[in-house]
Amino acid sequence: MKAELRDEAYIDTPLPIGHGQTISAIHMVLMMSEVLDLHIGHKMLEVGAGSGYHAAICAEIIAPQDADKKGHVFSIERVRKLADSARKNLERAGYGDRVTVVLGDGTCGLQEEAPFDRILVTAAGPKIPEPLIEQLKETGKLVIPIGQLHLWQDLILAEKTSKGIDKKRLCGVAFVPLRGKYGWR
Ligand code: SAH
Q1: 54 lines ligand 1 (CB under 6 A)
Q2: For residue 77, is it within any domain?
Q3: Nearest alpha carbon, ligand 1 atom 18
Q4: Residue 2 has pLDDT above 80, yes or no
Q5: pTM for the whole thing?
């Protein structure tokens, strides 16, 4: 985050993080984390590392310092400079061992680390990317904003069952676009 925005860090509103991207308002970060139903030991994937903040919040829940069996957050970011700064931010804040930031197109998931207990998508796509459904464990949960390219989208909670995917609409939201092979081109 830019130094001139430091005074706004505790205001519950989205803030710019550079490269045309934004970090969500804190209530949205917490709401998405809450509905994901995160537990210690979970292996999760975040699509859209951005600043690294949301990944740190998730790591705090699934991989607290004193846990015997720590979980892990893999966070993909497609903008190289954001991936680099997210990695630095996370290391500086003490999350380097619990969050791995990967540069790439998160709409393709992260096959080499699949399957995941939980998947968090922090940018809005036209539909749930098929690879993310495939890389989610059965009984796993996924949160993603789905809808129009710019304003508005629905925040969707999806749960994988033996029969397929159960989807629930949570609320209306406004997120930056999910770009990539299974997102907006
Ligand atoms: N979770 C972030 C905020 C994310 S903003 C935080 O805590 O700061 C959405 C991010 O998704 C942006 O950084 C954008 O570059 C990224 N993004 C968009 N499409 C992507 C894709 N296909 N793969 C990976 N990252 C993507």
Answers
A1: yes
A2: yes
A3: 178
A4: no
A5: 0.97
